[in-house]
Amino acid sequence: MIDFVTTDPLRVGLAAGAGVLWMLMSGVMLTRGRARASAVAVDALILSASQTGQAEELARHTHKALSTGGLTTRLMSLGQATVADLQQAKLVLVVASTTGVGDAPDDGAAFERALMSSRPDLSAQSFAVLALGDRSYEDFCAFGHRLHDWFTACGATAKKPITEVDDLDAQALKQWESYLKEWGGAAMQADANFAATTLIARERLNPESPSAGLYAIDFAIAEGATWVAGDLAEILTPSGHRRDYSIASLPEEGRVRLFVREVIKADGSRGEGSGLLTTLPLGESVPLRLKTHKGFHAPAGDGPVLLIAAGSGLAGVRPHLLELAGRGRPCWLIYGERHPLHDGRLSDEMRGWQHGGRLRKLDLAYSRPDDGVKIYVQDVIAQQAPAIRDWLGQGGSVLVCGGLDMGRGVDAALKEALGPDWLEAALSEGRYRRDLY
């Protein structure tokens, strides 16, 4: 078992994920009644609702720990679970994060919309929820609490009170580990450990901008390391906190590239992650590991793709552009930055891709141009709504990467342009994928 009194950040993170997984399991089974293989009776159903992959990873470790301990288990995303799945499990464990302003992650949103307004009979089930969140936000662990309340309303028995985890808090994880011991789990193992990784290059991309610096930061690739478009690099800060960054490159480019926006707080101090990455001397190392992010992997099929990003969010969609265009899928990029000259370096690469035929369509939006006419990516969506409907048709895909506020604006604009039914179907089918922070 994980020793929850440990101060090791990786082990602490694993414990947190375990709890979130239990929480997700509570909600997964109710998600949809779509046709698929019959539900299988198990001791424990582990469900994950994850926006950046943390809850998903922790759910995997929880699943492995419980199955190694001798329980029959099943692991799935909350968004895939049906009522039958829930009713076939003795214990439902949900590991769930909260994103935005008390919002469910994408793989939990469909479950919440479709099933949490109903009250299926779960009186034969027990459940537990591990909720991941950040106490600096007003709606701390809100989605986890909604799941807990819903399971209770359906007659399920709470095995334990909801376990709230603030930024992978060690004490909360210690409590969760004590629950895992009661339920017969074995020790949990990490997929990959952090390794000292060397900084090989760093360049400020907007040196003349009065705005916060935007940096391209390159790390060496560890021997044997690999990843796919959409995956994340996770660093460990000196204080033991973990920070995720979208990987802006593909392995064949010979580097792990990140786009990092400098964060300067109101008191003049630097953000912990960005401060480390933007000041670390070349040749020195940070603890880093590569992390799969299945929720932002390339959508299946060969249809057209609309990619939307702003600022450092281009990191998330850039490798997708390289990969998808290389496979012949038509790509349209809508990209937003602050100033066309001072903040336009990444736009220049995109223009080159358009001229070279890699990008079929490119729209650029600048929020702080000299003429004062602000345009955001959601404005472009509204202006291009008919063309976007034609481009996507019924089988196209949408990938979005950037800040939470941008993501909300884009979602509202897409609902207006495409209709909520199109977006909901695309979300459930994996054709609408978001990486928001």
Automatic annotation (TrEMBL):
Gene3D superfamilies: 3.40.50.360, Nucleotide-binding domain of ferredoxin-NADP reductase (FNR) module. Residues 192-299 form the FAD-binding FR-type domain. The lineage of its organism: Bacteria, Pseudomonadati, Pseudomonadota, Alphaproteobacteria, Caulobacterales. InterPro entries: FAD-bd_FR_type, Flavdoxin-like, Flavodoxin/NO_synth, Flavoprotein-like_sf, FNR_nucleotide-bd, OxRdtase_FAD/NAD-bd, Riboflavin_synthase-like_b-brl. Its EC number is 1.6.2.4. PANTHER family: NADPH--CYTOCHROME P450 REDUCTASE, NITRIC OXIDE SYNTHASE-RELATED. It comes from Asticcacaulis currens. The chain crosses the membrane at residues 12-30. Keywords: Electron transport, Flavoprotein, FMN, Membrane, Transmembrane, Transmembrane helix, Transport. This is NADPH--hemoprotein reductase. Pfam families: Flavodoxin_1 (PF00258), NAD_binding_1 (PF00175). Residues 44-188 form the Flavodoxin-like domain. The keyword Iron does not apply. The keyword Isomerase does not apply.
